[in-house]
Specification:
alpha/beta; Aspartate Aminotransferase, domain 1; seven-stranded mixed sheet; 14 helices; globular
């Protein structure tokens, strides 16, 4: 490893990718694996969006665009943020990137100095901590659990802040738990943010996948001061089933956007011109597919929650958004199968993959041992079969 930087060595491989690779290799060998590890909608991109991309190709929109994104798309994003989130941004306050993940990376690299502390509520999307480390920052985790519906408290937040704290990463609905925050909770968090002069990076990628009577409120919309210290990150992957198009955006004050634009100019330059044309249609075109996808995900959520919580010993928070279940399976630790002890969530996930041929993701990758993540981004038939396989496999442990 002498030729590899310590910075890269400090970052772990994605657990999700490792499990997914094993599952795909099993499928390649002809094994009937049900994949609950995926982090993307199983729906196809709507036809009107694909048609817009085809028109862009036919019209030779195959050249570089502005590094920050086409004016038309940034204007449409600004309109979306005003109409849906109550936020007033100009097109110059918006940057388009190759996915929301690049926006997150750009934001973290643009505001973090070496040894700055970044508060990350756990469990968390596993790339947050890696991005902070790559920027030379120090991740500081706030542990949450089922008792608080995976929300951190204001007391926890205040106790986590030191003189080195610079950023809070806030995401809801959350991957992997589906947790959300109420307006009252967000307002209380905002007061602490203002008092301590923090920057907030908000990951809003699951904003349209929120269930029951829960309502999505963009943190930046709380007041003008909060807006000025918040970087709003969003994209098209989850709402419009456009994961492979790699298109996302961030909205923030000019100070933040200009810094992110400078970094992006040296790393990737503009996002795909064709993907930008497709994203423009996603915003201006019919929104029926968004509502239909949400309705189906909510139905699946209800089904899988009932099935999983019927398994002996498993405790589970009912997600308020996204498309993941995050059950507590720690009661199976220490169990034996074929002289092999289930030591942690990784061992259990691998056991379920090999024994039940069901792919899940261990909670360790999300900073929360004792749990596994189950994606319900698959058909109801596969959900029923997959959970039945898991139940039978767990009954074999002793």
């Amino acid at each position: 490893m002498m030729n590899i930087s310590k910075r890269i060595q400090s970052v772990n491989e994605s657990t999700t990718m490792r499990i997914a690779a094993t599952a795909k290799e099993m499928q390649r060998r002809g094994e009937n694996v049900i994949d609950f590890s995926v982090g993307e909608p199983d729906f196809n991109t709507p036809v009107n969006i694909k048609d817009a991309a085809k028109r862009a190709l036919d019209n030779n929109q195959t050249h570089y665009t502005l590094n920050q994104g086409t004016f038309e798309l940034r204007q449409a994003i600004a309109q979306k943020l005003k109409n849906e989130n109550g936020l007033n941004y100009l097109p110059e306050n918006i940057i388009v990137s190759t996915g929301a993940k690049q926006c997150l990376y750009n934001a973290i690299q643009s505001v973090i100095e070496v040894d700055d502390e970044v508060i990350i509520p756990a469990p968390y999307y596993m790339s947050y901590a890696a991005m902070v480390k790559l920027a030379g920052g120090i991740p500081v985790f706030i542990n949450t659990d089922e008792e608080t519906e995976f929300n951190f408290t204001c007391e926890q937040l205040e106790h986590s802040i030191t003189s080195s704290t610079k950023v809070l990463i806030l995401s809801y609905p959350t991957n992997p738990t589906g947790a959300c925050y109420s307006e009252k909770q967000l307002t209380a968090i905002a007061k602490i943010v203002e008092k301590n002069n923090l920057i907030v990076i908000c990951d809003d990628i699951y904003e349209n996948l929120i269930y029951d009577d829960n309502k999505f409120i963009c943190f930046a919309s709380l007041n003008e001061n909060i807006k000025n210290r918040t970087i709003v990150v969003n994209g098209f992957s989850k709402s419009y089933a456009m994961t492979g198009w790699r298109i996302g955006y961030a909205a923030a004050s000019l100070e933040f956007v200009n810094a992110m634009n400078k970094l992006q100019g040296h790393v990737t330059s503009n996002a795909s011109s064709i993907s930008q044309a497709a994203a423009l249609e996603a915003l201006y075109g019919p929104q029926d597919s968004v509502a239909a996808m949400k309705k189906e995900f909510e139905s699946r959520r209800n089904l899988i929650f009932d099935l999983v919580t019927s398994i002996d010993g498993i405790k589970c928070f009912k997600p308020k958004g996204a498309f993941y279940l995050f059950p507590n399976i720690s009661c199976y630790f220490g169990k034996i199968f074929d002289n092999c002890k289930i030591k942690n969530s990784y061992y259990l996930a691998m056991y379920l993959l090999k024994e039940a041929k069901v792919a899940t993701v261990p909670g360790t990758g999300f900073g929360k041992e004792g749990h596994i993540r189950i994606s319900f981004s698959t058909s109801q038939e596969k959900i029923k079969e997959g959970i039945d396989r898991i139940k039978l496999a767990l009954q074999k442990l002793f």
